[in-house]
């Protein structure tokens, strides 16, 4: 069905998207086509973390000069686009992902494009406290501290609902708590900002994806509570959430299989996608810059759809 291909809303705006041609999907009944891959692997990689040895001075006077960011789920999709936005604005970026082979290849490409010494790849599953912690420590050791965390890694698999909760919600909580240890101004950190990738499904129900919806509502609630917690505590850390609508990524393929026992609602999901439209990863990722740099933004939920961006206001229950 054509809806799962690129739409008129989508343009090839940068190299990131050129490297990530959208995968067509025979939705609602079938399987997706294989996606394009990046260039061949570098066999010289030996450890789970790697970074180039020299740094560039190209970044002077950029909005994020001198800042270090950590992005989870950085190898593909929205996380990869966020990584590029951060690099384009002068930050150094630690890319965390379970996909080691493509992560290393991506890091090599980013090194060529944005300058040496700007990136670090760490194989880390956000379900693993040990791996996540080691990646933060390697980042601090390599770049001298952490200023920005994008808790972005996520999956859509209603069949594997416990794993979905473990990655989408528990992974965000784990990353946030680890970042607070590193960034907390009351504990010698330099403060900073956390951006949690939720979803439009964190603001309203996606009926075919009840567990995914629950995790994303959880991310929105956790973000708002931690933002208020941090402000009240004087930690110097802001926490915001990005809530994209439908975005053409790998996660947006093979939808009937991902819906599992709810696959009979695939047609209804198609109708919602047709109604709301889709956006590109770069259209989503560009919005992190405002959430990162605007120091008045804390506890915000920013909805991004083909209609544009909208800061969500929540009802007061007091
Ligand atoms: N694609 C969409 O329509 C939307 C996606 N989102 C959210 O955006 C985030 C990113 O999604 P996409 O870019 O679409 O997905 P994607 O599937 O294109 O990319 C996800 C990346 O996360 C990595 N990853 C998966 N599990 C991981 C784990 N346990 N630990 C570390 N890395 C892991 C993957 O290897 C991959 O590089 C997710 O949280 C998703 O829920 C939100 C709204 C819409
Ligand atoms: C099935 C693919 C899921 C892709 C992963 C996502 O996170 C995409 C989420 C995108 C949109 C979610 C929309 C949820 C909307 C509901 O709250 C609905 O109530 C909104 C109805 C709006 C309308 O009909 O105008």
Automatic annotation (TrEMBL):
SUPFAM superfamilies registered for this protein in UniProt: NAD(P)-binding Rossmann-fold domains
Biased composition, class Low complexity, residue ranges: 12-22
Catalysed reaction, written as an equation: resolvin D2 + NAD(+) = 7-oxoresolvin D2 + NADH + H(+); 14-hydroxy-(4Z,7Z,10Z,12E,16Z,19Z)-docosahexaenoate + NAD(+) = 14-oxo-(4Z,7Z,10Z,12E,16Z,19Z)-docosahexaenoate + NADH + H(+); resolvin E1 + NAD(+) = 18-oxo-resolvin E1 + NADH + H(+); prostaglandin E1 + NAD(+) = 15-oxoprostaglandin E1 + NADH + H(+)
Keywords from the UniProt entry: Fatty acid metabolism, Lipid metabolism, Oxidoreductase, Prostaglandin metabolism
Broad enzyme group: oxidoreductase
GO molecular function: 15-hydroxyicosatetraenoate dehydrogenase activity; 15-hydroxyprostaglandin dehydrogenase (NAD+) activity
Source organism superkingdom: Eukaryota
Compositional bias annotation for Polar residues: 33-57
GO biological process, one term: prostaglandin metabolic process
Cleaved signal peptide residues: none
UniProt GO cellular component terms: cytoplasm
A Pfam family that the UniProt record links to this protein: adh_short
Region feature Disordered, mapped onto this chain: 1-60
EC number from the UniProt entry: 1.1.1.141, 1.1.1.232
Role of this protein: Catalyzes the NAD-dependent dehydrogenation (oxidation) of a broad array of hydroxylated polyunsaturated fatty acids (mainly eicosanoids and docosanoids, including prostaglandins, lipoxins and resolvins), yielding their corresponding keto (oxo) metabolites. Decreases the levels of the pro-proliferative prostaglandins such as prostaglandin E2 (whose activity is increased in cancer because of an increase in the expression of cyclooxygenase 2) and generates oxo-fatty acid products that can profoundly influence cell function by abrogating pro-inflammatory cytokine expression.
Family listed: Belongs to the short-chain dehydrogenases/reductases (SDR) family.
Name of the protein described by the UniProt record: 15-hydroxyprostaglandin dehydrogenase [NAD(+)]
Gene it is expressed from: zgc:56585
